[in-house]
Amino acid sequence: MASVELTNIKKVYPGNVEAVRDVSLTVPNGSFTVLLGPSGCGKSTLLRMIAGLETITSGTCKIGERVVNEIEPAERDIAMVFQNYALYPHMSVYDNMAYGLKNRGTPKSEIEKRVREAAALLAIEDYLTRKPRALSGGQRQRVAMGRAIVREPQVFLFDEPLSNLDAKLRVTMRLEIKRLHNRLNATSIFVTHDQVEAMTLADQVVVMNAGKIEQIGAPGEVYKHPASRFVASFIGAPAMNLMPGRIAEAGSVETPGGKLPFDAKRFSASGEVEVGIRPEDIRTADGANGVPFKAELVEELGATRLLHGNFGTTPIIVAIPASGTQYESKEVRLTVDPAAVHLFDRTTGRSLAR
Amino acid sequence: MQKRAIFGGKTLPYLLLLPQLFVVGVFFYWPASQAVWQSFLLEDAFGLNTSFVWFENYKELFADAGYYRTMLTTGVFAIMVAGLSLSLALLLAVQADKSIHGAGVYKTLLIWPYAVAPAVAGVLWIFMFQPSLGVIAHAMRNFGIDWNPLLNGNDALLLVVMASTWKQISYNFLFFLAGLQSIPRAVIEAAAIDGASRTRRFWTIILPLLSPTVFFLVVVNIVYVFFDTFGIIDAMTQGGPSKATETLVYKVFFDGRLGGNLGSSAAQSVILMVMVVALTAVQFRFIERKVAY
Ligand SMILES: Nc1ncnc2c1ncn2[C@@H]1O[C@H](COP(=O)(O)OP(=O)(O)O)[C@@H](O)[C@H]1O
Ligand SMILES: [Mg+2]
Q1: Domain residue spans in chain B?
Q2: A93, A118 in Cβ contact below 8 A?
Q3: Domains of chain A: residue spans and CATH
Q4: Which of A238, B81, B130, B288 could share a disulfide with B134, CB 3.0–4.6 Å?
Q5: Torsion-angle region of residue A185: left (phi > 0), alpha (psi -120 to 50) or beta?
């Protein structure tokens, strides 16, 4: 297994499309790193540059100790799982998995052994003689993973491999990929636009936006301490409530809904700011304390319920545990834990955390 | 999706089919049945008397060594043209499929030959290769190559093969290019990551995935060589010298129009018809059984 090190990577497509701008990133040996971002932010481009399927406009890409910029995909010792599986339609499942080994001149008995092992691991032994078109989506997905596993590569690359599966299967396969990663002790880089996938799979999340890295951190870290307004709103569902604010006095910010205390030890802020509060960090209070709020709409989600209403002049969402209480059209008061208030620079969108 | 139309009675659907049936009837079944009828008739030398002779025309045909020679010529011609035009078109399509600079111009230029009428194509090639006038014939003579399609049968056949191939490449190219572009890029990329070299990718991934197209084109090309090269041959060699470039279709024309042997000519067209029907049947059978992946 090997680490992957990207330094000042840029990609400009013909027509002057800047898909990736100045990305530096280290994927430690054995890490499960997820590249997360909205569609079109350059995740696939970045992954494909690591795979060697796109040329690197500038910067260096290292796999292990080797700079691989000019090295063919086949020589990089990586395996890739594609979104549409990209199985060879005219080959049996067995041949699909054996193809890479055959190309490398692996002895027949060794190929047989490895394919059978991988097939057992993925529970696809019964389909080895079938053609891909005779398989379900989930089975094709397994074959695609099997094809990657038999090669025993240094690094696994995944480009949205679960997005073509139905919701239930996606959850199963997600767990399976994680289990496989732990078992093979592999280095994996996984591209997705689905934050739940990212949070559950990754030990390192890389949030990307418009060709740049917004934040690198553990899943808990990017959730609890978003480095920018973009990360704050992209991670977490429902999305973080954002509203304009002004620092009136130390440790207190003026918002459309009223004054809110914040943790002055964490943020160094003054003047105009952007205030962020997660829906799940807002509590309802009974007393006269807190900001008045009237829920105009209530969404029942089973375990939680979402209250939609106005916080002063800003529409917000409040997530509270389900209970028997009736909230619709009733005025309640809201309180926010000072530790849960995030402050961002109004113009740059960067977090104002010290 | 609902693809079936629902009609109230039985009259309307047949009524709607009528124009199509009429066209097929007038332009295919009627001439075809005429040919079959003619093939059973024998006209005397002066065209005054016709008699019904059953399979006499066919018997005579199959006893004629010249007919087998024409068959052989047609076979060689078909194999050469189909082989050359398919492999050259595939080569060009593979080049065009790579996103090269100026690909648009390249593709347009490749498609032009298809727009040229066969007879015109024949004349173009004659201009280049005619022993006394042709630019290329002249150049070849300067290089000391003895070249005379007017006298040498092999030279003539080669010339007709080249012209017919040139004419057919565009058609094959278009289908190959479409076929290549329908192969998902990720499949090729997966093979590249799997350690397959460019050539290996071609033989183990691209060509197998293209095989339905190849098969389709083989049949179309054979039919092309059988029938559509008539104009080229007529413009270039008229089947000569000494029948070296006479194909089955040209012989039909030659015997019927010039030789005045209508019965034999009709019998030959019936045999050709049977061949095409057989080819088409094979193709349909194959396509039904083995559609694209
Ligand atoms: N081959 C290409 N040529 C030109 N532009 C491209 C090409 N591939 C991707 N792009 C552009 O680069 C940007 C990033 O694309 P991509 O990496 O596929 O995004 P993501 O995978 O995050 O959705 C997009 O704006 C896309 O339109
Ligand atoms: Mg993508």
Answers
A1: 67-288
A2: no
A3: 4-232 (3.40.50.300), 238-345 (2.40.50.140)
A4: B130
A5: left
- The chain-wide mean pLDDT, for chain A, equals 91
Across the interface, of A74, A84, A151, the residue whose CB is closest to B186 is A84
* Whole-number Å distance between alpha carbons of A185 and A1: 8
Tally: H helices and E strands in chain A: 8, 20
Among all residues of chain A, which has the CA nearest to that of B291?
A90
Q: What is the predicted pLDDT for the residue at B293?
A: 46
Reading the block at residue A119, the tokens are 């097939």
Confidence grade of residue A193 (pLDDT, cut at 50, 70, 90):
very high
Report pLDDT digits (tens) over A272-284. 999 999 999 998 8
List pLDDT tens digits, range B149-187: 677 777 788 888 888 888 888 889 889 988 888 899 999
Query: Is the Cα torsion angle A49, A52, A57, A62 positive or negative in sign?
Result: positive
- What are the residue ranges in chain B where pLDDT is below 50? 1, 291-293
Angstroms from B90 CA to nearest CA on chain A:
20
Element (H, E) at A287: none
Which two tokens mark A259? 């004054």
Which alpha helices (H) appear in chain A, and where do they start and end? Answer: 43-51, 93-103, 108-122, 137-150, 167-184, 195-201, 219-224, 229-234
- Which of 3.40.190.10, 1.10.472.80, 1.10.357.10, 1.10.3720.10 is the CATH number of B67-288? 1.10.3720.10
Tell me the mean pLDDT in the region A247-263: 87
Query: In the numeric block, which tokens belong to residue A67?
Result: 């700079």
Distance CA B258, CA B233 (A): 15
Backbone angles phi, psi at A336, to 5 degrees: -130, 130
Chain B residues close to A79, C-beta within 8 Å: 193
Nearest by CB: A74 against B193, B204, B208: B193
Instruction: Give residue-wise pLDDT tens across range B184-205.
Output: 999 999 999 999 999 999 999 9
Mutation pick from B100, B193, B205 vs chain A, by most beta carbons of A within 10 Å, is B193
Report how far residue B159's alpha carbon sits from residue B128's, in angstroms, rounded to the nearest whole number. 10
DSSP-assigned letters across all residues of chain B: -------SSSHHHHHHHHHHHHHHIIIIIHHHHHHHHHHTEEE-TTSS-EEE-TTHHHHHHHH-HHHHHHHHHHHHHHHHHHHHHHHHHHHHHHHHHS--TTHHHHHHHHHHHHHS-HHHHHHHHHHHH-TTT-HHHHHHHHTT----TTT-HHHHHHHHHHHHHHHHHHHHHHHHHHHHHTS-HHHHHHHHHTT--HHHHIIIIIHHHHHHHHHHHHHHHHHIIIIITHHHHHHHTTT-STTTT--HHHHHHIIIIIS--HHHHHHHHHHHHHHHHHHHHHHHHHHHHS---
Beta carbons of A169 and A97 less than 8 angstroms apart = no
- B179: which residues sit within 8 A by CB, 6+ positions away? B93, B209, B210, B212, B213
- Closest-CA distance, B159 to chain A, in angstroms, reads 39
0.90 surpassed by complex ipTM:
no
Q: What region does A312 belong to: left with phi over 0, alpha with psi -120 to 50, or beta? A: left
pLDDT of residue B66: 79
CA B57, CA B256: separation in Å to the nearest integer? 13
Structure pTM? 0.82
Tell if the CB–CB gap between B186 and A99 is shorter than 8 Å: no
Q: Which two tokens stand for residue B270?
A: 């019936």
